[in-house]
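<discrete_fold_record>
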Amino acid sequence: MHPFLNGILIGLTLALLVGPALFVLLQTSIHRGFKAGLLIALGIFLSDLTVIILTYQGFSQILGEDPRQNFYFSLIGGLILIIFGTVTFTRKPEETVKGERDDEEIKVPGPMIYILKGYFLNIANPGVWFVWITAMVGVSSNYGVNSNGIVYFFAGAILTILSTDALKCFVAHQLKGILTNRVIGLLNKGVGVLLVAMGFFLVIDVFLNLKSLITFLH
């Protein structure tokens, strides 16, 4: 099978994975609109591209195949998720002004804010590094380090992820019409709790290696 098609299959698989960036992507699409969700998706795309490029250039030798080997990376990533989660949890749904400005959004952040939010939320997740480093190792062994097959593979993967993220934004935005401010407020709190929980998991895992403990208990 052509490397590009293999990349598409991997991209579809990764698109199904649940992570902090996915929650923010859906929440932003519902709360801020389809275009804002697309900007979050663009930030995620750019962060994936950054990780892939750094990994290809040998950054995996610095980070290690297991991102948990980098104490500060995992710690900072967890703290970023906790901060984003806290802000999301405390944010109240914005009321629209009745009349001529019913469809106008109030205090909408600039496009770059959304892009940076998607970028840092995704790149701060050690799991993202682990996935792409693992993929780079496997693809390099199959196609060769300097092969064009690597380019085709990762192009197929990240373009598929970007496309599916755009589809998620569209579907989530369609739900906005049936959601009240109260429901959106609860959604904010739910996403905030999930982000904070993931952040605490990363921070605590740095010291206790929770994954090993969970495996031991089973």
